[in-house]
Amino acid sequence: MAERLVPSVLMANPDYLRRRGILKLLAVKDSDIRLLTLEQCRDAVDKSLHAGGAFSATIPLVTLYYGGFIDIDVADPTRRGQDLFVLSKGHAVAALASIYAELGYFDKSVLRNSRSYESILNGHPGPILPGIQVATGPMGQGFSVAQGFAIAGRRSPRFDSYCLTGDGELQEGPIWEAVMYAGQKHLDNLCVMVDRNNGQLDMANRMVFPMPDLEPVFASFGWQVHSVDATQYDGVYTALEAFRYGPRNGKPTAIICHGMKGHGALSDFLNKHKVTVPDSVLEQEMSLQAAQRIERVAEYNRFLHELGTQPGGGVVRDGLVEFADRIRRAPLVQTRRVPTRNKRIDYDAARLPAIDPRKEYAASDIVTAAMKVFARDQRVVSIDSDLATTSGLEAGVASVDQTRALNVGVAEANMMGIGEAFAALGCNTWISTFCPFFDWKVLRRIAVGHQERLEAIESPNGWLSDGHGLDLTLLATGANFETRTNGATHMGNDDSTIFDGMAHLNIIDVSCPRQMLALMRWIMAGNRGLLYVRVMRTPSPVIYDADYAFEFGKGHVVRRSPKDVAVIVSSGRGVHEAIAASAECATQGVGVGVVDMPSIDERLLLELCASGQLVCLAEQNNGYIFQNLLKVVYRHGAAAMRDRVITVNALASSGRPRFIHSGTYEELIQAFGLSSSQIAHTVMTSLQEKTT
C-alpha cells in the first residue's frame, strides 16, 4: 500500500495542498535544471563548470523563475514594466543559462560548446546572451545595478527588481554602498537573495575570514530580512511569497539563503568553486540525477492521485496540472529581436540658455541651465556622488523632476551601477564626480556590457536592435589643473591617459561654455555610447560663435593666419592659455595658430604633422593628445616628427607620469611651463633652434 503523502487532517486545506504540490513540482524542475547544467559542463569547450556556486544557486533561481513570483516577458525582455533580475554572482551563469534555455530565451543548443570563442554563452553572463541585461562577474557590482532597476521600477509602469548575490562577494565594499542607499530610499520593490553557501573561490568549505550573521546587519540598514534553509524549497518559496504578495512596508527585502557550496550535487567532487569533471564522474552524476528526477516525478504523481481520491481534492489537482503546464519546458525559442529604441531626447531648443560672448561661465552653470530644458523628457536621468554642486546636474534635473536627480553620497561605485541600470532601460543617463574618483573596475565591467550589447545588435541572429546600447555620460569635474589646491589625490591630470585604454569609452575635454552646450545637444541626439566628459570647475571665457556644433572626433582651428609657422594644440583650459600665447607671439611678428582638440581628430593631427609647421602640444595633463598622436603616427606609417613636434605637459622630464601637488592655478601652470608666456617662449625658442 502506498504511503500517504499528506496527513488526513490537512486534506481539507486547499491552500496547503496546492503549496505542497508546487514544492514537489519545483523539485522536479530542480532536477531538470541540474541535468542541463551538467550537460553544459560535458559539452563546454574546457569541460569545466563553476559547480559550487551554480548548484547552491539553483534552489533560489528555480523558486524565483518557476514559483510564480517574477513577471517576465520572454518574447521581449526589454518591454517596460516587467520585473528584472541581476545575477550579481555571475559565476553561477550555468544555472541561469539552463533556466533561460528552458524558458525560451534561446535555443538549448546555445548551452553546448559554452565558453568557446564562437559561443554567446561565456564564463560569466552578459547582454550578448538573450534576456541578460548587464554583464556581471567582478564581485559585488551587480547588486547596485539591481538597485538602480528598483529605483526605476518605482515609477510607472511599476515593477520589481530581483538580485542573487553570493556571501563571498559581500566582502566587496560596493555591496554595502547599495545596501545603505536602498534602505534609505525605501526600495520595497527590491528583493536580494544572498546565497549563503559558506564558501568562496580559494576556500570552498569556509570563508576566507569569518563573517557576521547577515540578518541583523541587513536589518540595521532598514531591510526586511528572511532567514531560510536553502537546501530545500519551502523556506525560499515562503520568503519570496512574502515579498511578492505580502504588504509593502517601505523596506527592501533580503532573503538569506543558508546552504552549502555545491548543494544538490550528489558527488562531493562538485562542491568546489570551479571543477574540470572527469567523464566517469560526470556520467555517474548525470545518471544519479536522472534517477532522482524519476523518483520526484513518481512522488508528485502519487500526490496527485491521492488528491483525486479526497473530497474537493480534484480542484486542487486540476490547478496543479495547470501550474505544471505553465512551467513545462518551452518547445520553441520565444525571444525575438526586440523593437528599436528611439533615443533622441525631445526638447525646445529656444528654451536653452543664451550665452553672452562677453561673459565667463562655469561648466556647471551651463549644465544646470540646459538640464532644466532637457530633463523635461522623462528619459533624462542624473546621479551625483556627493559633488552635485560641481557638476550642476542635480540642480538642473531636480528643478524638473527630483525623482530623476539622484545623489548617492560618497559612493562612486554605487553611482556608476545605478547609472548603468537607467542606461540599460534606455535613459539618457549622466553620472558625475571628480575626474580621479570614477571606479576603473566598475567602468570596465560597464564597458564590457556595452560591447556585448553592440555585438547583439550587429549580429544577424542577435536579440537587440538599434538604440539598445548604453547612453551613459560620465561628467568628470575638475579636469586638468582645475582642482588646484585640493592636492594630488584630487587632481585630474592622469585620468584621461588611464581611461584612454578603456574600450568603447569616448573621451571629450571641454574648453568653452558654448562648446559645453553644443556637446550636450549632441549627446541628447542619442546613441552616443559611453562618454567621459572632462569639464572645468571655474568659469571660463567663450571661444566659439553661436553657430558652433559639436562633432566627436573633430578638432577645431580657433586661430589661424596664412603666415603661421607654428600651431599650438590643446584642450580644456589649456586652449585659453594657447590663445594668449598665440597673441603674445604675434606681438613679436610670429604667426602661431591654435587648435582646440576636445576629442582626438586623427585626420587633423596628421595634417598638422605634415604641414611643415612646428606643432606644440601644450596639455595640462599627462599628455593625452600626445599619447594619441604617437598611436596615430604609428598606425598610419607617417614619418618621424621629432624635429617638428614639441610637448609641454605634466609628465616628468624622463617621460614618466607623476602626480601634482596643491597650488593655485597660476602656480601650477607656471610650475609645469604651461602659462601663456611660457608656451609662447617655448614655441619661439624652438623656432629659433630650427633656423640655426
Which fold name corresponds to the CATH topology of the largest domain? Rossmann fold
Text of the CATH class of the largest domain = Alpha Beta
What is the beta-strand fraction?
A: 5-15%
Structural class, please? alpha/beta
Tally of contiguous helical segments: 22
Please name the fourth-level CATH homologous superfamily of the largest domain: Thiamin diphosphate (ThDP)-binding fold, Pyr/PP domains
Features:
5-stranded parallel sheet, Rossmann fold, alpha/beta, 692 residues, 22 helices, 6-stranded parallel sheet
Topology:
Elements: H1 14-43, E1 48-49, H2 51-56, H3 58-66, E2 84-87, H4 93-103, H5 142-153, E3 161-166, H6 173-184, E4 190-196, H7 214-220, E5 224-229, H8 233-245, E6 253-258, E7 275-276, H9 279-308, H10 313-326, E8 360-361, H11 363-374, E9 380-384, H12 388-391, H13 393-398, E10 405-407, H14 412-424, E11 428-434, H15 440-458, E12 472-477, H16 495-499, E13 505-509, H17 513-523, E14 530-535, E15 540-541, E16 556-559, E17 564-570, H18 574-586, E18 591-596, H19 602-610, E19 614-618, H20 624-635, E20 645-648, H21 665-671, H22 676-691
Parallel strand pairs: 2-3, 3-4, 4-6, 5-6, 9-10, 9-11, 11-12, 12-14, 13-14, 17-18, 17-19, 19-20
Antiparallel strand pairs: 1-7, 8-15, 16-18
